[in-house]
Specification:
Layout (H helix, E strand, L loop, with lengths): L2 H18 L1 H8 L6 H13 L4 H9 L11 H10 L2 H19 L4 H10 L6 E3 L2 E5 L5 H6 L3 H8 L21 H15 L4 E6 L9 E5 L2
Antiparallel strand pairs: 1-2, 2-4, 3-4
Helix pairs in contact: 1-2, 1-4, 4-10, 5-6
């Protein structure tokens, strides 16, 4: 088992204990399947048999990978000074341009396409929050690929289960709340308040992107 997998399972167990309690944690603890996909499927079955869906979503959200908070300092300061979500969101556009654009080797055209579709850190404002769409993980390879299943695998950010998109793709999409937790952490750091994430689109539901709604109420 690699270090990432070990760390992720530790986070799942810790968050299950905190959110769902000892009995559910003990059940998850018994899951010793080595394969990442089989482990994930069993994990979701165990959780669904014992706790409500909102708690399962919360467990996955809190087990997400996070961006360095050092990159969010300016957005946090803007929010503290203005209490304006949109002003803070615009600071995330700066982070996206200065960091993600060169890292993904985006052309200006690709960068503008991401902004117009709400891909990246900042997303697009909505009536009740922000709608954000994941950018493709292996960005340039994704745009060169023509096979639909390969494209989805290249799009997915999760190294644990992305290969499943080449086959049956039958993982319950509740798993993808882990990806939503990336944005939840960003905005909870910026605002200092609880932020709600709703999964709107998922590759595992047959969509071409993963998309989330961020609510600040």
């Amino acid at each position: 088992m690699n270090d990432f997998e070990t760390m992720w399972r530790q986070k799942i167990k810790k968050n299950t204990l905190h959110i769902a309690g000892e009995s559910t944690h003990d059940l998850v603890q018994k899951n010793d399947l080595h394969d990442e996909v089989l482990y994930s499927k069993q994990l979701i079955r165990d959780l669904k048999n014992n706790i409500l869906e909102d708690k399962i979503k919360d467990i996955f959200c809190k087990s997400a990978c996070h961006i360095s908070h050092d990159l969010l300092i300016n957005a946090k300061k803007v929010y503290e000074d203005t209490r304006d979500i949109e002003a803070a969101r615009k600071e995330l556009l700066v982070v996206f341009e200065q960091n993600t654009k060169p890292y993904k080797q985006m052309t200006d055209e690709q960068y503008q396409a991401c902004l117009s579709s709400g891909m990246g850190l900042a997303g697009l404002p909505s009536k009740n929050g922000i709608i954000v769409t994941k950018i493709p993980s292996r960005f340039q390879e994704y745009y060169l690929e023509t096979d639909p299943k390969q494209k989805k695998s290249l799009y997915c950010h999760c190294p644990r289960i992305r290969h499943e998109l080449l086959g049956k793709s039958d993982i319950d999409s509740i798993y993808c709340n882990c990806g939503g937790g990336f944005y939840q952490d960003i905005w909870e750091f910026i605002t200092g308040k609880k932020v709600t994430i709703e999964l709107m689109k998922s590759l595992f539901d047959g969509n071409d992107v993963c998309q989330f709604h961020i609510s600040f109420k």
